User: Fold these one by one.
Assistant:
Number 1:
Amino acid sequence: MSEPRSRALLAQLVAFATVSRDSNLELIEFVRDYLRGLGVDCELIYNAERTKANLLATLGPRVAGGIVLSGHTDVVPVDGQAWTVNPFCLSEEGGKLFGRGTADMKGYLASVLAAVPIFLAHPLRRPVHLAFSYDEEVGCLGVRGLLEVLPQRIPRPALCLIGEPTGLKPVLGHKGKLAMRCHVHGAACHSAYAPYGVNAIEQAARLIGRLGEIGARLAEPQRHDPRFDPAYSTVQVGVIQGGTALNIVPADCRFDFEVRALPAFAPQEVVEQLQDYAERTLLPAMRAVKPDTGIRFETLSAYPGLATPADSAAARLIARLCGSEAFGTVAFGTEGGLFDQAGIPTVVCGPGSMDQGHKPDEYVSVEQLAACDRLMDRLAAYLSEPEAP
Ligand SMILES: [Zn+2]
């Protein structure tokens, strides 16, 4: 097999250690300069501190009906992971290209960038928009700034193609996520006088028990959507902290929980039910002992789900480009729900597999990268056709 067109660019992108906590500007400036070299202007949309930026560029005529090629430039950390190769230096073995972000999702970004000369060489009738973001891995934060300005910058696109790794299979949906923190403030005292205090851990335990009951109701068969795995919305507590010593009634306890919501389910409902339980059942008893006790909820992060209909024009188009109507869903979240919420029909399709994402020795296969390059060729041909079918 000949070398994928995007391989050299992938090596360059992997060499920028764009872990979400750090700046992505070196990578973004590299992309800007690369595009400039090809005669393409782009706009950088910075965060408030100007330490990170999204990149937006348009190839072809500035008309409606274009395709947004969307990907995030940040990667997850490698700390504490047992890598056997340098994560920020692309290496190849056995048909696999190793490096942090090769699957999630610099392989796709490299394929898009390597296709820019192809797009420019085609008589495009509808445009390609490049939309590269930052801070996806920490709650889809960066792309929100890009989406704010997008309607003023580009005529209405027909489709957004999120290149998260799906093995290049067309994916139409994923669940949304709401991450919450609950603070329980009780009242401390010597444990020998436990009834005179308010035990924050015990109250937190009641809330967590209630979450389990709410979660069990979400799993009832009539609420299932078989397109997803698991086929229902789920609730999970992931972190708990509280107490200092066994002989002190703990004054504070906090726990973090998340709701992974089917696209049709509003995860805020779970929080409302829990708040209701706290206010009606727990707080009156707590405040009867000590008035200044409380239970407080804080949103940590949230992104919406995605459920593009299988009979939509967006689904037909991605099926045509992929040569497959075997539509799937993925368990992980993407920026797709936010594009969809902004009124842009969105699908997910990219090279590699999330089985390798976020792990040591992350890789994308040479075959997948080459196949994504061919997908870009088909996209260029499609956008050069006189009319959308
Ligand atoms: Zn990703």
Number 2:
Amino acid sequence: MSGGMSFELTEDQQLIRKSVGELLKKFDDHYWSEKDRAHEFPTEFYETVARGGWLGITIPEEYGGHGLGITEASLLAEEVSRSGGGMNAASSIHMSIFGMQPVVVHGSPELKQRTLPRIARGELHVCFGVTEPGAGLDTTRITTFARRDGDHYVVNGRKVWISKALESEKILLLTRTQHYDDVAKKTDGMTLFLTDLNRDHIDIRPIAKMGRNAVSSNELFIDDLRIPVEDRIGEEGRGFEYILDGLNPERMLIAAEALGLGRVALDRAVKYANEREVFGRPIGMNQGIQFPLADSLAHLDAAELVLRKATWLYDNGKPCGREANTAKYLCAEAGFTATDRALQTHGGMGYAEEYHVARYFREARVMRIAPISQEMILNYLGSHTLGMPRSY
Ligand SMILES: Cc1cc2nc3c(=O)[nH]c(=O)nc-3n(C[C@H](O)[C@H](O)[C@H](O)COP(=O)(O)OP(=O)(O)OC[C@H]3O[C@@H](n4cnc5c(N)ncnc54)[C@H](O)[C@@H]3O)c2cc1C
């Protein structure tokens, strides 16, 4: 090999793909369809992944994980999604993988010891509490407030869209410990906790939504929640800075999941296009059907390359904001477009639940909105990378 540039996965990385693919074969489309329809958490799937040791893929070895990189985690996420499990499968596990990054980097040894090994074993379900109804994408405008009271904080406020809160024991909770108007820099004065989701002080209400229904997303009403100081991550007032550590990995994993959904949708579309005969020939012979699928293959392949570059940069300790954002943007677009075309290829049957592409389509749609909207990614590229004025 010359020049050090390689487009090949290592043997270990290829093994991750293969092992995860094999492991998930028993969770077929019918399993996911049923879980989605019944709004039921995929416990059997979650436990299988946990028993396989995959939940601790990025958790340091001293805390019971494998200490692997985001490259490996993104391969896992892609295979999970590609298995047909899509976002239902991915969101039942991905918080355990990228969500703990602020704890790994800034948590006290005691907090890490108390939580990370349990996450790696699959015993501890966690959710991520950032979004608020009144703040939207402007996270600095959150108002959930943590007031210090001796060796505790007392928290009041409201969160929205918190995925998996119903099933979680703990929440990674972003609060303000100083009001917006009292800080010099708007990102100052926020504090992050990893604490019990105490149902006596937090009312959790699921939101009826378009898809990905095996994993709940919830409104949280927090009323005088007492949090011990030991549950604080790092220093008071620096919470915003800490969540930034998790954002690039989150974007890369979401990109991998979008890619996986696009790939599985494309597989289904090709199969159907080759089998379904209308006007005396397989519909896939028509360029009106074949070209959009070929075009999606090209876009998925291109998006995958940017994702590989982004994870490589991150794992090698290099800045990756531009690439992580671009990967999320391109994978979300390519993944969504592939599911839309897969649906079109199936004609009326695309609209039926029986062929599963309708489910993929609903799930791929969310990746253009969350965890960060496509517009905010373009904002980032426009202002940070191109040096244009900010609208945010
Ligand atoms: C299924 C699902 C699961 C989620 N899970 C979680 C979770 O577990 N934890 C959590 O904390 N949050 C979660 N979220 C919330 C998610 O992160 C937000 O919905 C997302 O960040 C968008 O924020 P918003 O909904 O408040 O949109 P808003 O901020 O209200 O924005 C509305 C629209 O305006 C656009 N817009 C706003 N300002 C600008 C600007 N300056 N330039 C261009 N466009 C702009 C946005 O791009 C968007 O399209 C989830 C959301 C969904 C749908």
